[in-house]
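Troubleshooting entry. Yesterday's outputs looked truncated, so today I'm pasting the complete records for two proteins to confirm everything comes through intact. If either block looks cut off, that's the bug. Protein one:
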Amino acid sequence: MKSFIAIVLSICFVKSSGTSSDALESLPDELIELFNSNGTTWKAGKNFDGLSLSQVKKLFMSSEETLTTNVEQIWHSDSDSHKEFDARTEWPHCPSIGQIFNQGFCSPSWIYASVGQMADRICIKTGQNIDVKATVEHMMNGNYDCNSNFNTADGAKAFRYWSTKGIFIEKPEKSSNQCRCQIKMNDEYFGVSNYRLSQQLDIIKEILSRGPITFHIEVYLDLLYYKSGVYQRTSDVKLGSHLVKVIGWGVENGVDYWLIANSWGTKWGDNGFFKLKRGVGALRVGENNYSALIEKNTKVPSTMDKEQLFLVAHKCSCGCDKSW
């Protein structure tokens, strides 16, 4: 009981003083009982077993980061929407939609959500399955390491890059000892235009017609403990920001939610997924969302950067695994 009171007091100290989350050195199990006692719409449980708060904070971006918003906004024309929708069942031939990845401590928090959305939309558009993990590893190889300050990147930059440079889709071939990760003459090239959605209904219609999109969300202490239900913030302890992939929406016990695929592994949350309450101000999701339109483009640029290359699944992969 004394330890529980101490935890509550420490949380109150962080709230009242306005200090950072550094006041909490660990992720105490006592907070599970505290969050579950709030009578909210979700249940807390143990995640990140054995990890300290300072370690877990490497999974997302600094709270102080200045975001750049996509310039173009679009509005969808009025049409009927669905009360519930799950992109996994709408496009079952695209397994990347439902894949959960473990970004680990050596991957920027934006990369799996961004590459994942592009892979989903390439599959929806062309029927080709992209190997998200291999693509991420290839992009990271030579660009990032665990000592780099790469996790402060603005997620919109990735979409603006692809919008400027386009995307190559490569079908790697096995050689005697490794993958051939080189562009061949018959590889496909797609142009990309990026934009953001203005209203919640526009987001719904965008996912319904073109597939998953990416949200930039704020991360608070209680999200680290999420296990089930519809998450809505109960903590004032802000830890940072993060990019996630939104694959659908629905209603649970009268509460509207977004269905979200995270990149913290399948042991976190509901097998790696979580439901976020829809509405104005929910982790600021309406302020920063990213979408991309993929079109076949016959004008292939003369140069190719690593971030342009997407690898087709079930062939071979390049790079290294940097999960924890």
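Protein two, checking that the full record survives here as well:
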Amino acid sequence: MSPPANASVNQKILQYEGFINEVLMRDLGRVLEQRDTVYEKIAEYLQLKNTIQSLQVHKENAMKYGKREQRASQVLSPADDMGPHVRRNSDSRLLKTDVDLGCHFYIQAEVEDSSRVFVAVGYGFFVEMTHTEALRFIDKKTSQLTAFTEQLTKDSAKIKANIRMVLEGLRELQGLTDLPDATRREVF
């Protein structure tokens, strides 16, 4: 009678091991991969936020220095034809930048009007926004994505707990005793 019971236990052990390896570990890998993808999206939005903020600082500095140049040009040459030219330069929205085409291959580009940006809002759609609109959207989107990553972290913790529970069941089926905790050395 012992061999059939032992065969039944071995069959259960194989089923539990298969469940751990084929279901729980796959689910855990999927959840962690999804969480990493969301973290990458958050990083892209934060990079866009930093870029927009630097564009705003650049615009403010151009306006400050442009007004100084305009005042200086009016003092040096009050000719009527010089005013609009200087004003156009001081209010210029031209932006020179390097664009990554991929694999860190950069080309120089000029953006004629950098006062508006296109932001990816999801599902392949882009919306043209002002800097303030984009910053508000980015704040909302990153908080939403952060909440989603927190949920994915909770899901991964539940899956890890399920794995631990099944492993405990396997240990009981096999009649193994609890493993001793790793000995800790006292520093003091």
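Both blocks look complete. Sanity check on protein two: The helical segments are 2-76, 82-90, 131-174.
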